[in-house]
Amino acid sequence: MKNELREALDSIRAGEGLKARTRAYVLSQAAGRAPSAQARRFRRWIWAAACAVLLSIGGLFGHLWLTPVSAISMDINPSLELELNRFGRVVAVEGFNDAGRSLLQGLELRFLPYTGAVEKVLAEESIAALLDEGLPMSIYVICDDDTQREEMLSILENCTNSHNGVHCHGGGAGHHSEAHQAGFSTGRYRAYLRLKELDSSITAEEAESMTMAELRERIIALAGEDDIFFASGGCAGGGHHGKGHHE
Q: How far apart are CA 100 and CA 76, in angstroms?
């Protein structure tokens, strides 16, 4: 009888020991799977910091991508201007007369490299026809960085050397906002200012109604072919290379 009681008690103690070991194992596993409150807070902080960094980088890139730092004015009779970001991509386009606005309705130029945008404009049927008729086009690069402007003019020379009558010029952004306020592209406004130097009676309204060919003819009639306005470029279509001059 005593032996049977002892065996029963030993069995109970063995069962309780197994339970204790099992309980300890389960608790240890649960602790491994469920991080502490401090660990959870730290992980949330890491995720929040990572998201903030990504948002900051995205915002900075968006600002750099969408902010114009230079421009290209293209004037023949349609008058338009391409605004470029620091990567040389077109981020905005504006027409400055009815012909320019009409032209842009059929062209998608945003986010193209400026070389591709210029080539696309030159290849447009109505522009090509005007150039074939012998009408001159002025391409004016607006950029305050002299080195970058010279590089852009050199690249544009390669884009335009197969088009007769395309004249490339460059200068700083001094007249850029002033031109827009007056309703002109920068290149066209620059031609108006040069003509006004030669003929003080010319008004902005008169210049606005004139084509670039007419503005050019008036300037040549008053100052000659060698006028600084025509020598102030980096290139000219048809194989003639202008001498650099900057405002």
A: 9
